[in-house]
Write a sequence for this structure.
């Protein structure tokens, strides 16, 4: 792949590399064609941000488009409090902090740095439980930073024709399982 990597792909690629192919295929169509209930609920959480209703404070950036040249990433940040130098990524519900969640934060973090913002703290926020989860910055967690960079490399070098050892339980939960020939294996 030589296109930009959407920040949202980072978590999805970990779930299944092949799902990125379907994201691209359906990228220009209505999301109602392929969003399941859980995703729609999660999406609703972000609609407040995307509609810029979360806060009217000028020192809070919400849902703005960002780009990171270093890693060739693009997407949106969730919430960035400029005064607090605090970046937050909200999820509908967090029961486990998956690596993909952290990598999405990293992508937003690096994008903001390139835009000249100072980011001192990053965190995940669980909407359902009203709980925040502070995350170490990449340079404070070199192991995770290396994993993040390895993931970017994997996405850049991914070949859709490569054989993927999928987990049938994952496929059963995947919104693309009716479209994907992998489920026929
Ligand atoms: S159905 Fe399975 S193999 Fe196909 S995209 Fe979904 S998780 Fe991946």
């Amino acid at each position: 792949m030589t296109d930009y990597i959407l920040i949202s792909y980072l978590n999805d690629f970990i779930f299944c590399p092949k799902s990125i192919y379907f994201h691209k295929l359906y990228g220009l169509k209505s999301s109602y064609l392929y969003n399941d209930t859980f995703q729609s609920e999660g999406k609703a959480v972000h609609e407040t941000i995307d509609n810029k209703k979360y806060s009217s404070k000028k020192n809070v950036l919400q849902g703005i488009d960002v780009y990171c040249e270093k890693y060739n990433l693009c997407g949106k940040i969730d919430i960035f409090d400029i005064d607090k130098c605090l970046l937050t990524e909200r999820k509908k519900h967090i029961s486990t902090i998956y690596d993909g969640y952290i990598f999405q934060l990293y992508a937003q973090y690096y994008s903001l740095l390139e835009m000249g913002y100072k980011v001192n703290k990053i965190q995940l926020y669980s909407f359902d439980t009203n709980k925040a989860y502070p995350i170490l910055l990449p340079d404070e967690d070199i192991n995770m930073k290396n994993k993040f960079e390895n993931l970017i490399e994997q996405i850049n070098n991914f070949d859709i024709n490569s054989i993927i050892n999928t987990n049938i339980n994952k496929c059963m939960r995947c919104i693309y399982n009716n479209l994907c020939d992998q489920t026929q294996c």
The longest helix spans residues 99-114. The domain at 5-184 is CATH 3.90.320.10 (Lambda Exonuclease; Chain A).
